[in-house]
From TrEMBL:
Catalytic activity: an aldehyde + NAD(+) + H2O = a carboxylate + NADH + 2 H(+)
UniProt keyword terms in alphabetical order: Oxidation, Oxidoreductase
Gene Ontology molecular function terms on file: aldehyde dehydrogenase (NAD+) activity
This enzyme's EC code(s): 1.2.1.3
Superkingdom of this protein's organism: Bacteria
Identification of the protein by name: aldehyde dehydrogenase (NAD(+))
Length: 475
């Protein structure tokens, strides 16, 4: 078993103040493969102190120094990409090829995009006789999830480094090994002592301590809406800035003039991707009522062609979900869908046939779903697709917006102008039109209970910057 019992603080590996440990479970076989230490508020204090001391000098580094640093990080990251893929596959169950191409690839993309943004971004502007400058906000606390480990670590760490902030990272205790490897990468790349610090631990202890800490100036959190509310409450007493990227229940509107085969195939695969463990997954499939049976048949074929199995085996499409807690939650929601009257088209409760161990979920499709059902309201975070029929374009838009979430959404039409018109009416931070993918230079984030602030590209820099007006500076 691998042991990761130290934290990375002030440029070195240090033993924690306390001695509690936690086994890291491989969800594919339910066996522990690593062990970490669980931090305390005292460990957070030590890390924040190092970050505060480091800020004094790092905040004054030049743009070129930070570009050079990020380029060094990228070089080491790429060299250790196979190690990173292996760690992610073991800790959260992603198929090894997917871990390498998509999971590790997301980190590569964010680092490269951050370098490009830093090279072009203007940090000063003249307004009348005033110089307006954007300065690093200070010490930031970064709390990241388990579902896309390097995606979320890099899209927080990179803008923090690029803007001159120092930081304390708390990765998910469920999938911490990739972040321990990332700390090694930061050290090898020559990140100055105190700039990047990592403390493992759980949310109620380390997450709470970061959120409350008076010497942390901003908290960037990605996770569930429930946990995000707790972070915001803990941060309120010190009036620190809070950036949150939270849950989603994204609608996928297929219009009556769309190529149904192509649109359903794309949407269903997007729902099942990463074992359904993506906050922006298109989990609510809205189709014209007259074509629901046809849509369900297509989705059924995709579900049955999606192979849930060993992440190391060739031919596996999706791996397990991350933990027993997630597995049990999803099983309960599948039962709720059946009990509330949805039609089970494919999949359903239980593990896939032939699998006796591991947190595997059967790729599942429900039809005849109404938007008041539990499976249409709650974020399932598993490979579960809910087909909701509608009778008019106006009803489709109303159903799409009838959710507490507003992270992402999808619209497909044979008429691009019609798709664009509907996209403007959806209350969500992102809309994918006619199958378009994401754009790392564009903002990622949501409306309503999906959070506040934005990540990715230059928009992801903004929460890490304060704005200062120097009146009369320009004569």
């Amino acid at each position: 078993m691998q042991e990761y019992l130290s934290f990375y603080i002030n440029g070195r590996w240090v033993r924690p103040e306390g001695r509690p440990t936690l086994d890291v479970i491989n969800p594919a076989d339910e066996e522990a493969f690593a062990r970490i230490s669980l931090g305390t508020a005292a460990d957070v204090d030590q890390a924040v102190g190092a970050a505060r001391r480091g800020f004094a000098s790092f905040s004054r580094t030049s743009r070129q120094e930070r570009i050079d640093l990020l380029e060094a990080v990228l070089s080491v990251y790429l060299r250790r990409a196979d190690e990173m893929a292996d760690a992610i596959s073991k800790e959260m169950g992603a198929p090894l090829g997917f871990a390498r191409e998509a999971q590790v690839g997301a980190g590569h993309g964010h680092i490269a995009q951050g370098i490009a943004v830093l090279k072009a971004m203007e940090f000063e502007e003249v307004v009348n006789n005033t110089l307006v400058v954007r300065e690093p906000i200070g010490v930031v606390g970064l709390i990241t999830p388990w579902n896309w480990p390097m995606n979320q670590v890099t899209c927080k760490v990179v803008p923090a480094l690029a803007t001159g902030c120092t930081m304390v990272l708390k990765p998910s205790e469920i999938a911490p090994v990739s972040s321990m490897l990332f700390a090694e990468i930061m050290h090898e790349a020559g990140v100055p002592a105190g700039v990047f610090n990592l403390v493992n631990g759980d949310g109620p202890t380390v997450g709470e301590a970061i959120s409350r800490h008076p010497d942390i100036d901003m908290v960037s959190f990605t996770g569930s809406t429930r946990a995000g509310i707790l972070v915001a409450k803990a941060a309120a007493d010190t009036v620190k800035r809070v950036h949150q990227e939270l849950g989603g229940k994204s609608p996928n509107i297929i219009l009556d003039d769309a190529d149904l085969e192509a649109a359903i195939t794309h949407g269903a695969r997007g729902c099942f991707n990463n074992s359904g463990q993506s906050c922006n997954a298109p989990t609510r499939l809205l189709v014209p009522r007259s074509r629901q049976d046809e849509a369900a048949a297509i989705a059924k074929r995709i579900a049955e062609a999606t192979v849930a199995g060993d992440p190391r085996a060739p031919g596996t499409t999706i791996g397990p979900v991350v933990s027993k807690t997630q597995f049990d939650k999803i099983q309960g929601l599948l039962e709720a869908g059946i009990k509330e009257g949805a039609t089970l088209v494919a999949g359903g409760p239980g593990r896939p046939e032939g699998i006796e161990k591991g947190y595997y979920i059967r790729p599942t499709v429900f039809a005849d779903v109404t938007n008041d059902m539990t499976i249409a309201r709650e974020e399932i975070f598993g490979p579960v697709l809910s087909i909701i029929p509608y009778d008019s374009e106006e009803e489709a838009i109303a159903i799409a917006n009838d959710t507490v979430y507003g992270l992402s959404s999808y619209v497909t039409s044979g008429d691009p102008e019609r798709a664009r018109r509907i996209a403007r009416q959806i209350r969500a931070g992102m809309v994918h039109i006619n199958g378009a993918g994401g754009d790392l230079a564009a903002p990622f984030g949501g409306y309503k209970q999906s959070g506040n602030g934005r990540e990715w590209g230059r928009y992801g820099f903004e929460d890490f910057l304060e704005v200062k007006s120097m009146f009369g500076y320009v004569q």
